[in-house]
């Protein structure tokens, strides 16, 4: 049985989100707003099919994918760069590789206890976020 990410998750802590946003080239004014946000993630998972809807008072971002199937990602409302993305299982973690202009871009999600973890990577920056069930 693979991990079950289904549910609604609220951000409770964040580390080095600023460094990640700088690496992505997000402007100062947008970073100031973005780092105050407490986004919520709604995961819908049916086997290997996922949607992750990240919502906040400022912006919303929806990504839908099937494990192992490459897709075009537009990152609209984030850095607006397009990339080719693919998500795979690594044990009970889901690991996304986002191939495009930015080196070493991607993210990993996993569950530990009752918490959802997210590691965001871009170039030499890593941000870690923790979410709790709503
Ligand atoms: C953009 C960069 C903040 C900052 C400005 C907008 C949508 C894994 C994955 C789903 C992400 C999180 C993206 C963070 C990009 C910050 C608006 C924040 C709320 O999540 O769950 O694609 O990539």
Automatic annotation (TrEMBL):
<feature type="domain" description="Cytosolic fatty-acid binding proteins">
    <location>
        <begin position="7"/>
        <end position="24"/>
    </location>
</feature>
<dbReference type="Pfam" id="PF00061">
    <property type="entry name" value="Lipocalin"/>
</dbReference>
<protein>
    <submittedName>
        <fullName>RET7 protein</fullName>
    </submittedName>
</protein>
<dbReference type="GO" id="GO:0008289">
    <property type="term" value="F:lipid binding"/>
</dbReference>
<dbReference type="InterPro" id="IPR000463">
    <property type="entry name" value="Fatty_acid-bd"/>
</dbReference>
<keyword id="KW-0813">Transport</keyword>
<dbReference type="InterPro" id="IPR000566">
    <property type="entry name" value="Lipocln_cytosolic_FA-bd_dom"/>
</dbReference>
<dbReference type="InterPro" id="IPR031259">
    <property type="entry name" value="ILBP"/>
</dbReference>
<comment type="similarity">
    <text>Belongs to the calycin superfamily. Fatty-acid binding protein (FABP) family.</text>
</comment>
<dbReference type="InterPro" id="IPR012674">
    <property type="entry name" value="Calycin"/>
</dbReference>
């Amino acid at each position: 049985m693979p991990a079950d990410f289904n549910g609604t998750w609220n951000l409770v802590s964040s580390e080095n989100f600023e460094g990640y946003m700088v690496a992505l080239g997000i402007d100062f004014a947008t970073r100031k707003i973005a780092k105050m946000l407490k986004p919520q993630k709604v995961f819908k998972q049916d086997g290997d099919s996922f949607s992750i809807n990240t919502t906040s008072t400022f912006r919303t971002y929806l990504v839908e994918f099937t494990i192992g199937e490459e897709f075009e990602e537009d990152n609209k409302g984030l850095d607006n760069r397009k990339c080719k993305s693919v998500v795979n299982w690594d044990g009970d973690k889901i690991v996304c590789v986002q191939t495009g202009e930015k080196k070493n871009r991607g993210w990993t999600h996993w569950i530990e206890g009752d918490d959802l973890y997210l590691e965001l990577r871009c170039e030499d920056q890593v941000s870690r976020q923790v979410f709790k069930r709503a």
